[in-house]
Amino acid sequence: MAKPSIGGTETRLISATGIAALCLVAGFLVLAIIPKDDPRVSAVRQLVFDLTSPMLELAGRPARAVEDVGNYFTTLGDIRNRNRELQRQNIELRKRINELTRAEFLMQQYRGLLNLPSEPDLQMVNARVIADLSSPFVHTLVTKGGRDRGIAPGQAAMGPNGLIGRVISSGNNSSRILLLTDFNSHIPVVALSSDVQAILSGTNRPQPELQFLPRQAELKDGDLLVTSGRGGQIPVGLPVALVRRNEDGKLTVQLLDDLQGLNFVRLVLSQATKAPPSELQLAPDVSQ
């Protein structure tokens, strides 16, 4: 009695397989006979897509869930790495704050012993650059804000990283800045590492040059130049440029800021001195 049952099952399986094979062959024949650009083929294809799209979406949910979980752990790992980096930076900054606090305390003690007057805190105001009037012969910027914001000729102009020039004229609501690269710009500077004094002079080229260097001056590549405060025009200690040596061993300087892409500047209000006459004659009142 068991054998007919088994034979019947095999017969049904063969019949189902044969039907599937016939349908597959028929499908290939239809695709071979009917042109691919036939509208009926496109309609059938679109109908198949419409019918199977819910199933495809359902089948793709596990993969998307796995992908979301992977992205979550990746993001979590990035956050942890970033958190560790911020903690490291925080420790380093605390260390620097402690060093600066100690240095400030020692400086106050030394000033008291030498009876030196204390330097006033620098007060700055931000100003937006509204015009770049640079040419092959003159390198200047015009900024929004003038006497209405306390800006006066002779004040230092700072970029994001260091000194970029000085104010040479100010109107009611605008000011003009002579850049360090201008031929008429001359800024007293000093090297922090060796205390070498020099004048940073503009050349109407992308980088200024050092003039009046002592003959035995020892400057190394990478030395930081800051304002010396000589002449009382610019506050002391403002970062300006780095010393560089080319392949021939000649000294050059690299400004800390790119003067071509400035959108905002900071003007130091603590020094409201007048610019030298040689610079004032280049600077008409830009507010008119």
Indicate the percent of residues in helices: 25-40%
Count of individual helical segments = 3
CATH class of the largest domain: Mainly Beta
Number of structurally distinct domains: 2
Question: What are the defining features of this structure?
Answer:
alpha+beta; Thrombin, subunit H; 3 helices; elongated; disordered C terminus
Briefly, what is this?
The protein has 3 helices and 12 strands.
Structure description:
The protein has 288 residues and is α+β, with helices and mostly antiparallel strands. It folds into 2 domains: 82 residues; 157 residues, Thrombin, subunit H (Beta Barrel). It is built from 3 helices and 12 strands, in the order H-H-E-E-E-E-E-E-E-E-E-E-E-E-H. A 6-stranded antiparallel beta barrel has the order 1-2-5-4-3-12. Strands 8-7-6-9-10-11 form a 6-stranded antiparallel beta sheet, with no helix packed on it. Strand 7 and strand 8 form a beta hairpin. The longest helix is centred in the first third of the chain and has 76 residues. The termini are far apart.
